[in-house]
Each structure stands twice: as C-alpha cells, then as structure tokens.
Design a protein that fits this description.
Belongs to the peptidase M50B family. About 55% of the residues lie in helices and about 5% in strands. It is mainly α. The strands form 3 sheets. It has a two-stranded antiparallel sheet. Helix 4 crosses helix 8.
C-alpha cells in the first residue's frame, strides 16, 4: 500500500483543485472559459473568486473523505485488505460540474460474513451523514444577508426580498430538489428572511455541499445490489431473501425513473427513435436479472406497457428520468445481486436496529427529483 501512497495523495490534491474551481463557478455563477459570447480568454473568474471556491471543496471533500474512511477503518478493523480512497477529479472549465466523480476504495479480498458486509457497508454512509448534518447546520445558521446574493445577481436588487417571484423564466434555470432533511432545516433552523430560493442554493457553498452530501448518501444507501444499502440489507436478510428482493426494488426504481419520458402527444414519424431507444434501454438493463433472455424481454415489455398505461390514466405523473443513467450503471456495472459470504450467520439485534436506522437516514436524504432544470 505504501508504494501507492503518492498516487492517492496526488488524486486527492487534484480533486481539491478541481472541486475548488467548480465551487468557484457555482458560487459566483460563471464558467471559467465560457460565457454568453462563447469561449473566454483570459478566464472570467478571478484569483480571489477561485479562493472563494475553497469553501465548497473543503466541505464536500470533507464529506467524501469521512464516507470513504468510514469504510476503510471498518475494513481494517476486520483485517480485510483494502486500499486507501481513490479520489476521481474531473473538470472541463466550459460547463458546470462539481469537480469530481466521487471517491472509492478497493476491497482486495473476500469478506467473510454478513456481519462484516453490514459493518463495512454502513460505516461509510453514517460517517458521511454526520458531516452532512454539520454542513447543513452551519450553513443554515450562518446565512449571509441578501446583499451577498445581490452582489452575484445585481439585477435582483430592483425586487429586493421578493426577487424569486420575478426572475426564473429561463429554460435552463437549475433548482435543487427536495428531501425531508433539507426541508426540516429550512423550516426549523433557517431565518426565513435570509433563506435563498432553491434556484440560488448553488451560490451558498455550505448549503450546496450539504445537499450534495445528502444526495450521495441516499444514492449509496439504495438497497440494491452491492451499493452500501445493498450490503446493509443483505446483512439483515441473508443471501437468498436479499437476492429475491433486490431485483424487485430495482424494477420499481427503473419504473419510477422512466415515468413521463414518453409523451403520448408525439409525432411517431419524427420521434419513433425515442420510443425505440427507451425500449432497447429496458431490454438492456433487465437482461442481467434473469438467466434466460426472454424473461428479461417480458419484464421490459411489462414495465414499458405499464408506464404507458400510467401516462394514459394520469398524464401529469412524472418520474425522474435522470435516474435512468444510474439504473444502467447498476445493472451493467455494479450489479443488482449480492454475492454470498462463507458465514451466513444472522446479525445481532443491535445491528438489525442500526440497519433500520440506516433506512431512516435514506428516507431523510432521498430526493425523488434531486436536480430540476425548468
């Protein structure tokens, strides 16, 4: 492990840089190299603004680091060979991103028991959740005056505190979605006079980092396959019961994600490719769930038809199509099923209670539609 330590440090430092750049872009609402007139040189963001992005990068990397080291130290406790976290930097400079695709550790040997899967799986989300609570607590109790927002958007000054009723009419306006924990902080902790619109959360580094922390916590706690939530539920249920339930939960996830994607008011001569592409997508993601291809085809047909029926009966029903990308990753890369462990001994009562607590955390953090572009 020691001979790879420089690589881990390099990836961390690169990710610190890229998330700082991304944090500056979100905080001040402008891209490094791209503006209304196209490519910009020299960069539109000043050195002082870049340093302002550190609040976001330190906050979000604090969450990622807590999450990954929760897994790491628990694995080391059980003497499971594991790598230090690999951070994944990514930044383009011409489009908004968060500067990273996250981080991961590699477990380099088989895990022995359901208890170990459970403990290693739950440690990361719970450690990250504590950091997320701290970020949101600080962010909502230290909201700056409205003048902070008016310095970023001077055109809002004419409307004062009532700006939200007048300014969101562009087709690319981005708002963060809703989850129970964010709503609780808004209602119980924040000063209503200082609370920004959901379209402006990205300008508030602690709130934005806190929301992303909740988003990634919920994503990891999805009780499917070999996600952290899958490890937890596998530990609670065992190999056979979990691998019967996980494909059902995955099917529900895809069903919700695809709702509203296909409009019934379309010109089939022009839009046939969207229908055909989505049907092919369903066949691809459901194929790994069954030993026989025709079983996956039948499930894909059933989901496709039921979604269309829902659109006929309740045309206003809308899922979140952004989940479809993650659904593909789950099916074809991460897997919907969980491998067995040599020791299938049931968990203790205390761990079962902790597993139910993790479910509560998932419900508090989960946003059905986390990012909304009008």
């Amino acid at each position: 492990m020691r001979h790879k330590l420089p690589l881990h440090l390099l990836l961390f430092l690169l990710t610190l840089v890229t998330t700082t750049f991304a944090g500056a872009e979100w905080r001040y609402g402008k891209s490094f190299f791209y503006g209304l007139e196209g490519f910009i040189w020299p960069p539109a963001i000043t050195q002082e603004e870049i340093m302002g992005g550190l609040l976001f990068s330190a906050s979000f990397l604090g969450f990622l680091t807590a999450h990954e080291f929760g897994h790491y130290f628990t694995a080391r406790f059980y003497r499971v060979r594991v790598t230090l976290p690999y951070y994944i930097p990514i930044w383009l400079g011409v489009t908004f991103g968060i500067g990273t695709m996250g981080a991961f550790i590699r477990i380099k040997e088989r895990i022995f028991s359901r208890k170990e899967f459970f403990d290693i799986g739950i440690a990361g989300p719970l450690a990250g959740f504590v950091v997320a609570l701290g970020l949101l607590g600080y962010g909502f109790t230290h909201l700056p005056p409205l003048e902070y927002l008016f310095e970023i958007h001077p055109e809002y000054r004419v409307w004062g505190a009532n700006y939200a009723a007048h300014v969101y009419f562009r087709a690319d306006d981005l708002a963060i979605g809703k989850n129970l924990l964010f709503l609780l902080f808004e209602k119980l902790v924040a000063d209503p006079a200082l609370l920004p619109s959901r379209y402006e959360i990205t300008h508030y580094p602690f709130l934005f980092a806190g929301f992303l922390s909740l988003f990634f916590t919920a994503l990891n706690l999805l009780p499917i396959g070999q996600l952290d939530g899958g490890h937890i539920l596998y530990g609670m249920m065992g190999y056979k019961r979990f691998n019967r339930l996980s494909p059902m939960l995955y099917t529900i996830f895809i069903f919700y994600a695809g709702l509203g994607l296909l409009s019934l008011e379309v010109n089939m001569e022009e839009d046939w490719w969207l229908w055909a592409g989505y049907a092919l997508y369903l066949i691809i993601v459901f194929r790994p769930l069954f030993p026989e291809p025709k079983q996956g085809l039948l499930l894909a047909t059933g989901v496709f038809g039921t979604q269309l029926l829902v659109q006929v009966i309740w045309p206003e029903v809308q899922g979140y199509n952004g989940w479809l990308v993650f659904g593909l990753v789950l099916s074809r890369a991460l897997g919907v099923f969980h491998p067995p462990s040599p020791n299938e001994e049931p968990l203790s009562r205390g761990r079962i209670i902790l597993g139910w607590f993790a479910l509560v955390v998932f419900i508090l953090c989960f946003s059905p539609a986390p990012f909304i572009v009008d």
